[in-house]
Design brief:
By secondary structure, this protein is α/β, with parallel strands linked by helices. 41% of the residues lie in helices and 18% in strands. It binds 2-phosphoglycolic acid and zinc ion.
Length: 414
């Protein structure tokens, strides 16, 4: 059962968008680990740099010639030591030299190899015996913004959150039901609808934000009635993507709102559609407006993605200002598992809900399912359908089965 690392191999593979990405294998004396990096389309400005100058080829060269010689011989269960080594080999704040995606793939492959060597599923290796709490899936059912061709709503994601589900399996069934109902409603309400889907497997349409929201709300309400538990609507506004810095306005097809008007608009949506979750309602530097919304919004998770980029320092600033009560965790925004884990711990200590998340360009790598349970994230954000999303959701169904009677759903008060 030796966890000594004997070899590290990097290769180029493809993600769900058909873009190239990096995959890393870590071979120990007694086991094997593998991880591949996801990639964002609406990336936060403060995220780790995904690849070094020279792109993936250079990232692969760095793994094999710079990182591998340093970590071969170390134990794969020395996660913190290896992650800190990745930082010192890079030498910059934002992984400019080796790339955040490179660090991510090495860091996760190391954890995967350690778990495999011990003969444990990753969630149990990370979280121990008490890692038995399943997250609620926050599922993207309708897309707009940067994830589409730009003829639909400016808001990037319309999401379903089956808060009342008694099990993960039932929760995913609810999201699949909402997804299907949204299709039927779009067929009726959008004459141009041809069944198109976004990168994340959510439907695309030519409707406005309010029309799209009406449809998703109706689908969630119907699903709640049919399945007998609460299913609420969430939004990822991704407001930085339609903020016009020169005009100082959020530019929609039919209106251009200043920050105060945007605040009023979001509050109205929360009230009218009983929103349970709103992500990035303002541009990524506007901590103050986030704080105003967090103070005023009732029964709604206010979440920072581009705002925090899984970065502990940005989260600490947010905590001080009361900027949110929820944070998106994307490990490759920050680079290593240890960094993400520190951010999750700080978030929980401050009463923030950590939401572990996929990225719009993703692979069938299902580690985030294990991170949700192993690191205690009460929500996992993915699509509802599409291979890279289903891989993660199905892994959670297997984890739930593995835990059997011990499995619990997360405690989530919204
Ligand atoms: P991504 O965006 O394209 O950066 O993965 C997803 C999100 O904003 O949550
Ligand atoms: Zn987001």
């Amino acid at each position: 059962m030796s966890t000594v690392i004997e070899d590290v191999i990097a290769r180029k593979i493809f993600n769900s968008r058909g873009e190239e990405t990096i995959e890393v294998d870590v071979i120990t004396a007694g086991g094997f680990g593998r991880a591949s990096a996801p990639s964002g389309a609406s990336r936060g400005k403060a995220e780790a740099t995904p690849y070094p100058k020279g792109g993936i080829e250079e990232a692969i060269r760095k793994v094999e010639q710079v990182i591998a010689p340093e970590i071969i011989g170390l134990n794969a269960d020395s996660q913190e030591e290896i992650d800190s080594l990745l930082h010192s080999l890079d030498g910059t704040e934002n992984f400019n030299n080796i790339g955040g995606n490179t660090a991510f793939a090495v860091s996760l492959a190391v954890a995967d190899a350690a778990a495999n060597t011990y003969g444990l599923p990753l969630f149990q290796y990370l979280g121990g015996f008490y890692a038995k709490v399943l997250p609620y899936p926050l599922g993207n059912v309708l897309s707009g913004g940067k994830h589409t061709a730009g003829k639909g709503p400016e808001i990037q994601e319309f999401l379903s959150l089956p808060l009342g589900a008694p099990s993960f399996l039932e929760a995913q069934r609810a999201n699949a039901t909402v997804h299907e109902k949204v299709r039927k409603l779009l067929e009726k309400k959008d004459k141009t609808f041809t069944g198109g889907k976004s990168d994340e497997g959510a439907w695309t349409c030519a409707l406005s934000n309010d029309e799209a929201l009406e449809i998703v709300y109706e689908a969630c309400e119907e699903t709640s009635k049919e399945l007998g538990f609460e299913c609420r609507v969430g939004l990822d506004v991704a407001a930085s993507t339609f903020w016009n810095a020169r005009k100082k306005r959020y530019v929609y097809r039919d209106k251009a709102l200043d920050s105060n008007e945007q605040l009023e608009y979001i509050l109205e949506l929360i009230k009218n559609y009983k929103l349970a979750y709103v992500e990035d309602p303002f541009r990524e530097e506007d901590f103050e407006k986030f704080a105003e919304l967090t103070k005023k919004a009732k029964n709604c998770l206010i979440c920072g993605d581009d705002l925090f980029v899984t970065n502990l320092k940005r989260l600490q600033k947010g905590i001080k200002l009361g900027a949110a009560n929820t944070i998106i965790i994307k490990v490759n925004q920050i680079g290593t598992l240890t960094d993400a884990w520190e951010t999750i711990r700080a978030a929980k200590a401050a009463g923030y809900t950590p939401v572990i998340s996929h990225r719009s360009g993703d692979t069938v790598d299902s580690h985030i399912a294990h991170l949700a349970v192993g690191l205690g994230c009460p929500i996992i954000k993915t699509g509802v359908v599409e291979g890279a999303r289903i891989a993660k959701l199905n892994e959670l169904i297997r984890i739930e089965e593995m835990l059997a009677d011990r499995a619990l759903m997360a405690q989530l008060k919204v």
